[in-house]
């Protein structure tokens, strides 16, 4: 039979062991609970990710479109006009294009009785969309009915009321060849570009004359809120010359004289 002192010594030892086992069991249960919660969270994230991936085609369908570009301005009024003595040509269209960043293009096109384009004149008032690094003749070949990759070469200068205007033709074109002739004139103040082409005439001299006549007859109908534009045309009218189908003698007709200096 154990003494009372021995019984009292054993009892605290058993109690300590039981408490330690209970604490260990609680710790295991808590760890398992956290583990299950962690796995459940991972599963939830995986489900959400798969759902998002499944919606990617729909999200792509609703992506915002690229920056808006040029659009036809049906409600805008013509700002320019060209008086023509030649009644064999008719104005095919007057189209006004506007850009959200401020640019405006007034495009006049003429066609013959068969509906074939014979001339075009574009007045481009530049806005923030204007790219100074883009070559001035980048799209002129395409507008002339040539391939966009067609190279153009300088074909001399003509004198107009706007000053010297550079001429361009497909590279390698010979005198007398039936090729359209392009032209380009740039102004820095106001920021303006006048360009176009003509297919009129039997050779380069007559086409030069046609371009000069078109530009000398170009008039401003309305300048809007652009006083410098009105000033440009007012000064140009003071230098307006007559149209001579043969071409004036002081024109620089040779390609060798087409070394341009300064703005076009």
Write up what this structure looks like.
- The protein has 5 helices and 10 strands, in the order ααβββββαββββαβα.
- It is α+β, with helices and mostly antiparallel strands and 264 residues long.
- The strands form 2 sheets. It has an 8-stranded antiparallel sheet. The chain has a two-stranded antiparallel ribbon with strand order 2-10.
- A hairpin with a 5-residue loop joins strand 4 and strand 5.
Keywords:
eight-stranded antiparallel beta sheet; two-stranded antiparallel ribbon; rod-shaped; disordered C terminus
Shape: rod-shaped
How would a textbook summarize the main sheet? 8 strands, antiparallel
Radius of gyration: 40 Å
Q: Which regions contain 5 or more consecutive residues with pLDDT less than 50?
A: 56-64, 248-264
Strand-residue proportion = 15-25%
Helix-strand category: alpha+beta
Measured as a percent range, the helix fraction is: 25-40%
Going across the major beta sheet, what is the strand order? 1-3-4-5-9-8-7-6
How many β strands by DSSP?
Answer: 10
Overall pLDDT = 77
Reading the helices and strands in chain order gives HHEEEEEHEEEEHEH
* Count of helical regions: 5
Question: Roughly how many Å apart are the termini?
Answer: 125 Å
In short:
This protein has 264 residues and is α+β, with helices and mostly antiparallel strands. It has helices at 4-54, 56-61, 140-143, 204-216, 227-238; strands at residues 71-72, 80-82, 90-98, 104-111, 117-125, 152-160, 163-170, 181-187, 192-198, 218-220.
């Amino acid at each position: 039979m154990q003494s009372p002192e021995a019984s009292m010594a054993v009892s605290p030892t058993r109690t300590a062991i039981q408490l330690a086992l209970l604490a260990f069991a609680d710790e295991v249960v808590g760890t398992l609970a956290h583990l299950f919660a962690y796995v459940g969270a991972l599963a939830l994230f995986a489900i959400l990710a798969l759902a998002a991936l499944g919606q990617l085609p729909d999200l792509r369908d609703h992506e915002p479109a690229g920056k808006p570009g040029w659009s036809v301005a049906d409600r805008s009024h013509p700002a320019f006009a060209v008086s023509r003595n030649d009644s064999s040509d008719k104005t095919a269209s007057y189209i006004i294009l506007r850009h959200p960043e401020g640019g405006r293009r007034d495009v006049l096109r003429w066609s013959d009785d068969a509906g074939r384009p014979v001339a075009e004149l574009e007045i481009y008032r530049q806005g923030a969309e204007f790219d100074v690094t883009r070559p001035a003749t980048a799209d002129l070949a395409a507008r002339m009915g040539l391939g966009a990759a067609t190279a153009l070469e300088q074909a001399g200068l003509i004198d107009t009321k706007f000053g010297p205007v550079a001429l361009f033709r497909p590279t390698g074109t010979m005198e007398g060849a039936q090729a359209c002739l392009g032209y380009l004139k740039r102004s820095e103040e106001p920021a303006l570009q006048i360009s176009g082409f003509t297919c009129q005439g039997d050779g380069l001299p007559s086409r030069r004359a046609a371009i000069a006549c078109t530009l000398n007859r170009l008039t401003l109908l309305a300048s809007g809120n652009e006083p410098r534009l009105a000033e440009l045309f007012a000064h140009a009218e003071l230098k307006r010359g007559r149209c001579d189908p043969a071409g004036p003698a002081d024109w620089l007709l040779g390609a060798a004289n087409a070394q341009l200096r300064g703005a076009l």
